[in-house]
């Protein structure tokens, strides 16, 4: 079998002496090695002609010494997470209960809000807040969780001036009891409260001021929703909450739930309206699905709910 012949073209931009030297070298290497040599030379030529500023690239450069981390920290997967100018955003994860905690801050004033913090990760969260030089104003829970204990109560003992917040319909104790259309402010930004009961009576969703992001707690999950078989759960209420509140937000609004169990980070309102396998059904079909899930109760429900009713300070 005859070997394949490679046709190589020497870049025309090279000087005649360089062309001669390259041709001489090529005559002494095997075809695959020749192709690699030309490929590397072409890549060097191409890269030298590209002078795009680093800030225009998807992946951010390393943080320079003395640079403000709130202004320079960025990741490819969250390139659209914080479309509001001057808004810092960080998504954090607790593995035992698969809970997402969200940190938002105003870049200028450094005032911050923390959503759904977990007791097991309080040291991590406090460390990050201190490292970034943030002033945490409010720690808010989207509902009275059944699968983990909130860290808001303990965190209040470590951060002067921090206030806890939860829905007034949750039955829980907190500094701020939230109602429909209340605003949680941090610097020039704010979160608007949407009452979205159904998983529990005290569920709320939190919408960023420009409606680019919504934090849905356990009401709307990625391709799913919160269960409705305990803690005042009602499939009818949940269906109404999602369709009449969350699904009226813009299609491009990013959805950040309180949990995800298979590693999904976020979704969009448009995606969930179109692809969510439960919420694309009629109300009757949805109720039938939710009434027949037959899920085991959360492992920590007997300790989490009593603790969260008193802001997570039960037995702490």
From TrEMBL:
Check the record and name the SMART domains matching this protein.
Answer: Lactamase_B
List the SUPFAM superfamilies: Metallo-hydrolase/oxidoreductase
Q: Which InterPro entries match?
A: Metallo-B-lactamas (IPR001279), Mito_Persulfide_Diox (IPR051682), POD-like_MBL-fold (IPR044528), RibonucZ/Hydroxyglut_hydro (IPR036866)
First-level EC class: oxidoreductase
What Gene Ontology terms describe what this protein does at the molecular function level? metal ion binding; sulfur dioxygenase activity
| Cell compartments where the protein resides | Mitochondrion
Q: Which residue intervals define the domain Metallo-beta-lactamase in the entry?
A: 98-259
Listed under catalytic activity are:
S-sulfanylglutathione + O2 + H2O = sulfite + glutathione + 2 H(+)
Taking the first listed entry, what is the main subcellular location of this protein, grouped into a coarse class?
Answer: mitochondrion
Please name the CDD domains in this protein's record. Answer: POD-like_MBL-fold (cd07724)
Cellular component aspect of the GO annotation: mitochondrion
The GO biological-process annotations, alphabetized, read as: glutathione metabolic process; hydrogen sulfide metabolic process
Keywords associated with the record? Acetylation, Dioxygenase, Iron, Metal-binding, Mitochondrion, Oxidoreductase, Transit peptide
A Pfam match is: Lactamase_B
EC code(s) of this entry: 1.13.11.18
Q: How does it assemble?
A: Homodimer. Monomer. Interacts with TST. May interact with RELA.
Q: Which family does it belong to?
A: Belongs to the metallo-beta-lactamase superfamily. Glyoxalase II family.
Q: What is the name of the protein in this document? A: Persulfide dioxygenase ETHE1, mitochondrial
Organism of provenance:
Takifugu flavidus (sansaifugu)
């Amino acid at each position: 079998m005859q070997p394949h012949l490679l046709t190589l073209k020497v870049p025309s931009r090279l000087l005649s002496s360089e062309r001669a030297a390259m041709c001489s070298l090529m005559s002494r290497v095997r075809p695959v090695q020749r192709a690699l040599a030309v490929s590397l030379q072409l890549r060097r030529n191409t890269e030298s002609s590209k002078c795009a500023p680093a800030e225009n690239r998807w992946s951010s450069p390393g943080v320079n010494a003395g640079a403000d981390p709130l202004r320079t920290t960025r990741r490819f997967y969250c390139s659209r997470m914080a479309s509001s100018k001057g808004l810092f955003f960080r998504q954090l994860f607790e593995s035992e209960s698969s809970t997402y905690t969200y940190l938002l801050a105003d870049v200028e004033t450094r005032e911050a809000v923390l959503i759904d913090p977990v007791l097991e990760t309080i040291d991590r969260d406090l460390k990050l807040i201190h490292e970034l030089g943030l002033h945490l104003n409010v720690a808010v829970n989207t509902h009275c969780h059944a699968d983990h204990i909130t860290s808001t109560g303990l965190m209040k003992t470590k951060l002067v001036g921090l206030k806890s917040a939860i829905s007034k319909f949750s039955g829980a104790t907190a500094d701020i009891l939230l109602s429909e259309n209340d605003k949680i402010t941090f610097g020039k930004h704010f979160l608007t409260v949407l009452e979205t009961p159904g998983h529990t009576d005290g569920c709320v969703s939190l919408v960023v001021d420009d409606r680019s992001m919504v934090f849905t707690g356990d009401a709307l999950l990625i391709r799913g929703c919160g269960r409705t078989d305990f803690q005042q759960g009602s499939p009818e209420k949940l269906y109404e909450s999602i369709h009449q509140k969350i699904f009226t937000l813009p299609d491009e609004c990013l959805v950040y739930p309180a949990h995800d169990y298979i590693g999904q980070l976020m979704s969009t309102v448009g995606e969930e309206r179109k692809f969510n396998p439960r919420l694309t059904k009629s109300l009757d079909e949805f109720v039938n699905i939710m009434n027949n899930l037959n899920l085991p109760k959360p492992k920590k429900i007997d300790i989490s709910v009593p603790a969260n009713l008193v802001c997570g300070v039960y037995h702490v």
